[in-house]
Write a structure and sequence with these properties.
The protein is of the alpha+beta class. The chain is built from 10 helices and 12 strands. It has 2 domains: about 140 residues, Tetratricopeptide repeat domain (Serine Threonine Protein Phosphatase 5, Tetratricopeptide repeat, Alpha Horseshoe); about 200 residues, Double Stranded RNA Binding Domain (2-Layer Sandwich), CATH 3.30.160. Helix 2 packs parallel to helix 5, helix 8 runs antiparallel to helix 9 and helix 9 packs antiparallel against helix 10.
Length: about 350
């Protein structure tokens, strides 16, 4: 399995969610260079290998949904003194969830994804949920878009609870009391996802998800507080993205960021190799490290080169080779960094063995 160099922005569950192309993040100091890589985490409910492509649709959006601008929606909450508890049906949040799901599933490398222009499908409701699709409808959609299955959002709800109040606190430094205005916002989100497989005429996955995001802040004035407080519209959008993250982690490979360090001092060629890494040229850097590992007469330099080659092997997905090179580095000359790295590699290998059982 190939490991990836970290994208410039990572999906941060719950609060901050963005996505951009692959990018290498690095920082350097006098003797070490730090890189960030992404390690794969296998999905718990990955779909069968026969399902390679998914059509993503939403069967909850209807005439009760609105798409108010951020300022207009915010004013509705201000009109209630920012003390309210209500269900908001926001088209942007629902659509953002679909787009985020598509990006995340495609980025996992496991699925091809189609999100049609007409992605809000007409439906009939049974209580809080949309009735299951007919198999004729499923087959028609899969044929029209050349996909193996339909991933449908059959229920989506966002409830917003806000509170605005003035609180008094004791400040021991001044031995006195002070007042502050506080704002609290909670978004409770839930959804039902179904995967319809037309050939077997089975719903191969039903997944109900529910969670909460909380925002809190305080300031000396209302203007200062709400100038920086997350707007309701943005909170709803973040809830949609959080739901996409929650679900796609179930069926697609997710990527966990970890840092690795490289030796860049002790020999001029180690420094040159570090400059190649800055350019993303791992082949040129590895060539230098290989030469130093075989030809250098200095144990410290040879040990560092072998360690760097171990990191390169891990990035290429060869964990056994990384461990072997790490052991060679450790046996050549003790480095605390090498010892710590070997412990991490051995832990990762044990975890991968558990997953394969």
């Amino acid at each position: 399995m190939i490991f990836r160099l970290l994208k410039m922005n990572i999906f941060f569950k719950k609060y901050y969610v963005v996505w951009l192309p692959l990018f290498l993040i690095m920082s350097s100091c006098t003797s070490l260079k730090t890189i960030t890589i992404e390690l794969p985490k296998e999905a718990k409910k990955e779909l069968s290998p026969e399902i390679q492509s998914l059509l993503i649709i939403n069967r909850t959006v209807d005439d009760s949904y609105t798409n108010l601008k951020s300022d207009s929606l915010q004013q509705l909450f201000f009109d209630e003194g920012f003390n309210t508890d209500t269900v908001i049906k926001d088209i942007q949040a629902a659509d953002t969830m679909l787009k985020a799901m598509g990006d995340l599933l495609f980025e996992s490398g496991r699925y091809d994804v189609v999100i049609p222009e007409q992605r809000f499908i007409e439906h009939k409701k049974n209580a809080f949920f949309s009735e299951s699709m007919s198999w004729d409808a499923v087959k028609s959609l899969c044929e029209a878009y050349s996909t193996d299955a339909v991933l449908s959002v059959d229920m989506f709800s966002t409830r917003v609870i806000t509170k605005y109040d003035k609180e008094t606190y004791f400040n021991p430094a001044d031995n006195g009391f002070f007042s502050a205005l506080e704002a609290h916002m909670v978004v409770v989100y839930e959804a039902l996802f179904k995967v319809y497989e037309p050939d077997s005429e089975k719903v191969v996955l039903r997944e109900f998800m529910r969670d909460t995001i909380i925002w809190e802040d305080m300031a000396g004035s209302a203007q200062e507080l709400f100038t920086r407080f997350t707007p309701v519209k943005q909170a709803l959008t973040e809830a949609g993205i959080a739901l996409a993250l929650d679900f796609t982690e179930k069926i697609g490979t997710s990527w966990i960021p970890e840092q690795r360090k490289l030796f860049t001092s002790g020999d001029e060629q180690l420094k040159w190799a570090g400059e190649y890494i800055d350019k993303g040229d791992w082949a040129a850097a590895s060539k230098i490290w290989t030469k130093l590992a075989t030809e250098s007469t200095k144990k410290s330099v040879k040990s560092k080169a072998l360690y760097n080659l171990a990191v390169a092997a891990e990035i290429q997905g060869d964990l056994d080779k990384a461990i072997s090179l790490g052991v060679d580095s450790y046996n050549t000359m003790y480095q605390q960094l090498t010892y710590d790295y070997l412990e991490r590699l051995k832990y990762r290998k044990r975890e991968l063995q558990k997953q394969s059982q």
